[in-house]
Design brief:
Helix content is about 35%, strand content about 15%. It has about 270 residues and is of the alpha/beta class. It has a single domain, classed as Metallo-dependent phosphatases (Purple Acid Phosphatase, chain A, domain 2, 4-Layer Sandwich), CATH 3.60.21.10. The longest helix has 18 residues. The protein binds fe (ii) ion (2 copies). The site of one fe (ii) ion has 6 residues, from loops. One fe (ii) ion binds next to loops.
Length: about 270
């Protein structure tokens, strides 16, 4: 069975910058690869309604079912404390993996949830308060991700969801999907990129990685969020996949079809 991995398509933003929708070309690529299923690790677009619109359009044009978990952009809202409502909308959609694992044959399960960040990647000398004030200056979630609770508490909820789902599928090989970076080695301090160093605390949580390291039945880990194509790497007995499309201005070429090809990966499993 072949699963095509994508993330961070940012369809709304890329549509605006390119002057056309990226969906027809993504759908054409999916038809060409002809996977059994598509997995998108968040940041399809801003807000749940738009994400759902793009997901349905992509499914329709490609003819392949898609599984989705929200990214931080997916739950953006301009209303106070309403990000959980955006999250719920996405959770209730047929594409959602949240509490709705994709069981593949007798041996495999794709499970996932949004994930979040808890400042565990901050520099050692930084206090929590410094992270909070840097979030306000450098990170747009401070204006649009409104959960009505601290980031650590959102991360706690996500960890609980991951624990429950991992325990429920202990007898299967697991493909784990979340939007955020679970491992510290993917969040190095940069010697020259000051902005990156400021936003590292909002990249993910090492507690997600700790949980995955304690879960030997996890065979594949998929994430996005960082718009750097780390690719697929071996980590002990796991494969770790990071294949974001990102924004037009971050691409190496001006060729959308080429970028989609470069920002995707196929997992083959024996079901
Ligand atoms: Fe993104
Ligand atoms: Fe993101």
């Amino acid at each position: 069975m072949r699963l095509l991995i994508l993330s961070d398509l940012h369809c709304d933003n890329n549509h605006q910058r390119l002057g056309r929708s990226i969906i027809p070309e993504v759908a054409a690529y999916i038809r060409e690869v002809a996977p059994d299923h598509v997995i998108v690790a968040g940041d399809m677009a801003g807000g749940a309604k738009r994400c759902i619109q793009y997901i349905e359009e992509l499914e329709q044009l490609s003819g392949v079912r898609l599984s989705y978990i929200p990214g931080n952009h997916s739950i953006w809202t301009d209303k106070l404390n309403d990000s959980w409502k955006e999250y719920e909308q996405l959770r209730n959609h047929h594409s959602s993996l949240i509490g709705n694992p994709l069981l593949l044959g007798e041996k495999w399960a794709v499970i996932g949830d949004m994930g979040w960040y808890d400042y565990s990647y901050r520099e050692e000398s930084w206090t929590r308060e410094e992270c909070v004030s840097r979030k306000e200056s450098y990170w747009r979630d401070s204006a649009f991700a409104k959960f009505g609770m601290d980031d650590e508490a959102v991360t706690d909820r996500m960890l609980e969801s991951f624990r429950t789902q991992l325990a429920a599928h202990r007898d299967r090989n697991v493909i784990f999907v979340n939007h955020f970076i679970p491992y510290r080695d993917y969040v190095p301090i940069s010697p020259h990129n000051k902005v990156w160093n400021m936003i590292r605390p909002f990249m993910g949580s090492s507690r997600i990685g700790d949980l995955l390291d304690e879960s030997p039945h996890v065979r594949h880990v998929i994430f996005g969020h960082v718009h750097w194509r780390f690719g697929s790497k071996r980590r002990g007995d796991q494969w770790v996949h990071c294949h974001p499309l990102g924004y037009v201005y971050e691409w190496k070429t001006e060729d959308l079809a080429q970028e989609i090809r470069d920002a995707s990966h196929v997992i083959e499993i024996d079901v």
